[in-house]
Amino acid sequence: MLRLIVLFIFIGLGLYVGTQSAGQQGYVFIAIANTAIEMSVTTLLVVFIMLITGILLLSKLIKKVWRFSSESCEFFGRRKVRQARALTNEGIIQFLEGNFKLAEKNVTRHVNHHDMPLLCYLVASEAAESRGNHQDRDHYLELASQQENSRLAVEITRSKQYIRAQDYDLAYQTLEPLFKTFPRNVIVLALLKQSYVQLKMWQPLLDLAPKLVKEKVITQQEKMDIEQMARCGLLDDIARRNGKEGLINFWDSQSRGTKKNIKLIEHLCSLLIFHKADTEAFKLIKENINKSSPSTLFRFIPDLKFSDNQCLFDFLESHLKKDPNNAGANSALARLLMKEKNWVNAQQYLEKALTIRTDLNDYGYLTEVLEQQNLTQAAHEVSKKILTIVNKNVA
């Protein structure tokens, strides 16, 4: 528009000057090297205006041609982008359907024209990994890592692939530095937790548990389960490295709340008995039964090995005087009597325990006691009872 205005101004000026100078056209002489040009002033003005007009028209024509060329390039470029997106979408569907080879082919077919090549390479890597082609899997991940802002998505994908392949060491080596950079990413936290569990890295798992709850990766109940598993694992590690002395020292260093955890106490008892620390195990059992009377601890008493079991009998009998309906104490006393081959009394205590609660182990002990007394029919009836309970639980 501006150029047209300028053009009309020049034409108007030319007409005005031409009119005013009619009959007084003047004279113009231009000499360039051996060439001489002669013309009137009016002719010069007309030539000048025509030249300007030509330049303006030519520039407009060039711009139209350029715009047409650019629009054509953009059209074909957008068409290729649409094709790339369509193929990628189709490839993702094929990947979800399990057609991994075709999915890999489609997502990489026009990756150079896709506006999100990172997505294409990640899907291709997953497809190659699903086909068992680890070389292509790693190649696509390398291409994906060359894209901008790709580190988090690439390393999470890589870690998932390592975990699926049960390469937990490699997964941990990938996730640990990622966790330092993205400490609140819920996927990184979940994968790191899984790696810690599989690698039995119990102390790091304990340290991670509060973070997992804070970021809502796990619930509070799951946190308690994880902490219990980790502390049991720590007990196993210490027992393996340092024996019963290490176990006792470690337990003494724990907080009061930890020492109240009945599952940990049970695990510690089993480890102490395994490492022939029967005196220490019995002391632990007595202390905790006297404090809170957890019936589950009674089951460890028959496994204790002393030259004289009288102290064990006295302890159980004293508790049964206070509470004759303590199923755990009745069962433990019956098992001690079985070790003494006192089948009749063992039968009485087992039957008493089973009237209080159903326990498959006690039914098994009762079957053995009856067989030892040649009460074959009664033993058979108890065995049928066991099968009925098992079938009911399975159903």
UniProtKB/TrEMBL annotation:
<dbReference type="GO" id="GO:0005886">
    <property type="term" value="C:plasma membrane"/>
</dbReference>
<keyword id="KW-1003">Cell membrane</keyword>
<keyword id="KW-1133">Transmembrane helix</keyword>
<dbReference type="InterPro" id="IPR005254">
    <property type="entry name" value="Heme_biosyn_assoc_TPR_pro"/>
</dbReference>
<dbReference type="InterPro" id="IPR011990">
    <property type="entry name" value="TPR-like_helical_dom_sf"/>
</dbReference>
<dbReference type="GO" id="GO:0006779">
    <property type="term" value="P:porphyrin-containing compound biosynthetic process"/>
</dbReference>
<dbReference type="Pfam" id="PF07219">
    <property type="entry name" value="HemY_N"/>
</dbReference>
<protein>
    <submittedName>
        <fullName>HemY protein</fullName>
    </submittedName>
</protein>
<feature type="transmembrane region" description="Helical">
    <location>
        <begin position="39"/>
        <end position="58"/>
    </location>
</feature>
<dbReference type="GO" id="GO:0042168">
    <property type="term" value="P:heme metabolic process"/>
</dbReference>
<keyword id="KW-0997">Cell inner membrane</keyword>
<keyword id="KW-0472">Membrane</keyword>
<dbReference type="InterPro" id="IPR010817">
    <property type="entry name" value="HemY_N"/>
</dbReference>
<keyword id="KW-0627">Porphyrin biosynthesis</keyword>
<comment type="pathway">
    <text>Porphyrin-containing compound metabolism; protoheme biosynthesis.</text>
</comment>
<feature type="domain" description="HemY N-terminal">
    <location>
        <begin position="26"/>
        <end position="132"/>
    </location>
</feature>
<comment type="function">
    <text>Involved in a late step of protoheme IX synthesis.</text>
</comment>
<keyword id="KW-0812">Transmembrane</keyword>
